[in-house]
Amino acid sequence: MKKIFSRPKSIKKAIFHYCPGCGHSIIHRLIGEVIDEMNLQEIIIGIPPAGCAVLAYNYFDIDMGEASHGRAAALATGMKRALPDRVIFTYQGDGDIAAIGTAETIHAASRGENITTIFVNNGVYGMTGGQMAPTSILGQTTTTSPGGRKEKRDGFPIKLSEMLAIANGSAYIERTAVNSPANILKTKKAIAKAFRVQIQNLGFSLVEILSPCPTNWKMSPPEAWKWIDDVMSLQYPLGVIKDITEGR
Amino acid sequence: MRGNHILGEAAIRAGCRFYFGYPITPQNEVSEYMSERLSKIEGGVFIQAESEIASIHMVIGASMAGGRVMTSSSGPGISLKQEGISFLSGLELPAVIVNMTRGGPGMGNIAPAQSDYFQATRGGGHGDYRTIVLAPNSCQELADLTYKAFDLADNYRIPVIILGDGMLGQIMEPVELPPEIPIKKLPHKDWILSGAKGRPSRVIHSLYLDTNKAEEHNWKLMRKYEKISKEEVRWEGIFLEDAKMIVVAFGIAARIAKGAIKRIREEGFKVGLFRPITLWPFPYQPLKEMTKKVKSFFVFELNMGQMVEDVKIGLEGNGEVYFYGRPGGVVPTPLEISRVISSQYYKKKL
User: Fold this and answer.
1) What are the structural domains of chain B?
2) Are strands B68-73 and B45-48 parallel, antiparallel or unpaired?
3) Structural domains in chain A (count)
4) pLDDT in tens, B52-86
């Protein structure tokens, strides 16, 4: 019998701690597949965040260095400048990148740092128990927005990817989701493209991935997938937001 | 050369190729020097970051990649860097951090001060940790200790703080600069992140969710700190042979004290100077040795009294401690200090 599906070489044989239905597991696997297919395992370094994915360094069989909350883009900047021929990526959640790490991220993009950011947007602070995130949508109930997020009290959700697209130094920004087989395949393509943009030294690349958090959304996994389609992607439309390689 | 330029040149000669800064007075000459110098060296990297927080995390990234790396700031900027300094400590990464201290708290002012002694010697950020703290008192020593700081940082995988002050950075003195180390001759690091080529993948992390593992990590750090405390204590003694009273001071305050002591020794006052060069590890034992012959200690600092606590710890109750401080960026003259010392000397009927 022919083996047609197996664990990517760059993913360790470990049991993921992620909740059932969580998008992180899928996204880890996609990154692992891309690393294998692009043959990057020996030259790639990952920067996991503070948040649910902090333990990513237990799952990827590649060099990884921990960043404190929000500082991944700055850390990756220092690392990439020291190792310009390696591929450096940060893996960050919405609280990490769009609240505490906004300045680091915008400036890394503005400098055109040749790094790639995987921005996992699930609209909540998952690790700390489901508090309101900068990306929580209006009306979304979280542990710190009881009764739903209200703009007068809580402000509006931030569209960080669109903000980053304005930066002259950003080269490729796409928003995808991992809530259907088709979207999962698109996400994988986007990750591969982001790494290629980095390898070609074109500037900052980022893939924002709308990712289900059934536990904190208090939904079943199928409901969470549907919620991304019906609600979340209206606030955060899927598609390419910026691509300087178009037409090249 | 000016102190801040000397610091930059000594760092480059020690193999520093990465500098990440953010403007703040009175240390801007360090950034300016590094931007000029590093742009002319192959592999040299200078970034003016968007904040002190970003700059210290760029330091972490370059350090993980194995580079010799430095950042510099002053008071308020060092407060912002504390998050990164705690991480450097937990991650066991080498780095050199310069604090050309200004008056505080808050915005304070841009005049020379020593008010960040506690922050530097007690860790400064969250968690149980120490950083090596070097306190030069001349441009020559600034060059020598900056050069040495990179070796200490690499040997122990620890952040090293150079605690200067606004005056040290601005004064101009002739110096003999140390020789340039070729990057290829720097010691090999077998822990860095460079891509898992021909070796198992590596992880550098400070998170230990298992409390037993976290405790072991803390004890490991503790053993390192104990080793440093045994092997890296530095201090200088002047006029100690016949001293009946010892002035304890560090950095630029020690220099002012030295001038004051020279002046009153001519009048017959038998006063010596004990100058800690490493503020952590503090020279507790050598200071205690002094109490075999001397019982009167005069601590002079440009703050409201911080190192004086270490002096008291070191003396273990053997000797009287008198403190004189000028906070807020005030720099007294040797004449003023000589008067305070001599009046205390009279009072004690020495």
Assistant:
1) 3-195+219-231 (3.40.50.970), 236-347 (3.40.50.920)
2) unpaired
3) 1
4) 999 999 999 999 999 999 999 999 999 999 999 99
DSSP annotation string for B107-160 = T--SSB--TTHHHHHT-SSSSS---EEE---SHHHHHHHHHHHHHHHHHHT-EE
Residues 74-93 of B with CB under 8 A from A: 83-84, 87, 91
Residues 6+ apart with CB under 8 A from A210: A121, A122, A175, A176, A177, A178, A179, A228, A232, A233, A236, A238
Q: 3-class DSSP state for residue B298?
A: strand
- Kindly report the CATH number assigned to the domain that includes residue A33: 3.40.50.970
The nearest CA of chain B is from the CA of A115 a distance in Å of: 12
Q: Is A231 on the interface with B (CB under 8 A)?
A: no
User: Hey, what are A216's tokens?
Assistant: 């904190």
Domain membership of residue A34 (yes or no) is yes
Question: Which chain A positions have a beta carbon within 8 Å of B83's beta carbon?
Answer: 68, 71
Q: Which residues of B touch A79 (CB under 8 A)?
A: 61-62, 64-65, 193
**B145-184 core/surface letters (b: 16 or more CB in 10 A; e: else):** bbbbbbbbbbebbbbbbbbbbbbbbebeeebeeeeebeee
Q: Which two tokens stand for residue A37?
A: 């297919």
Q: What is the pLDDT of residues B112-152, one digit of tens each?
A: 999 999 999 999 999 999 999 999 999 999 999 999 999 99
pLDDT digits (tens, 9 = 90+) for B165-223: 999 999 999 999 999 999 999 999 999 999 999 999 999 999 999 999 999 999 999 99
Residue A136 lies in a domain: no
Q: B64, A107: Cβ pair inside 8 Å?
A: no
- Does the distance separating the beta carbons of A71 and B57 come in below 8 Å? yes
Residue with tokens 């006029």: B239
Phi and psi, residue B180, nearest 5°: -75, 130
Q: Give the chain A residue whose CA is nearest to the CA of B195.
A: A43
Name the E strands within B200-348.
203-204, 235-238, 245-248, 271-276, 278-280, 296-301, 320-325
Query: A25-73 pLDDT, tens per residue?
Result: 999 999 999 999 999 999 999 999 998 999 999 999 999 999 999 999 9
Residue A141 domain-assigned (yes or no): no
**Nearest Cα residue to A238 out of A186, A200, A192:** A186
CB-based contact (8 Å) between A74 and chain B? yes
Report yes or no on A11 lying in a domain.
Answer: no
- Helices B251-265 + B334-347 axis angle, to 10: 60
> Which pairing describes strands B245-248 and B296-301: parallel, antiparallel, or unpaired?
parallel
Q: Is the ipTM of this complex over 0.90?
A: yes
pLDDT at B350 over 90: no
| Interchain contact, B67 vs A82, CB within 8 Å | yes
In degrees and rounded to multiples of 5, residue A65 shows phi and psi of -130, 125
Is the model's pLDDT at A138 over the cut of 70? yes
Vertex B281, ends B278 and B283: CA angle to 5°?
A: 75
Q: Which is it for strands A87-93 and A44-47: parallel, antiparallel or unpaired?
A: parallel
Q: What is the pTM of this model?
A: 0.97
Q: Could A78 and B63 be called an inter-chain contact, meaning their C-beta atoms sit closer than 8 Å?
A: yes
Domain that holds residue A104: 23-127+159-243
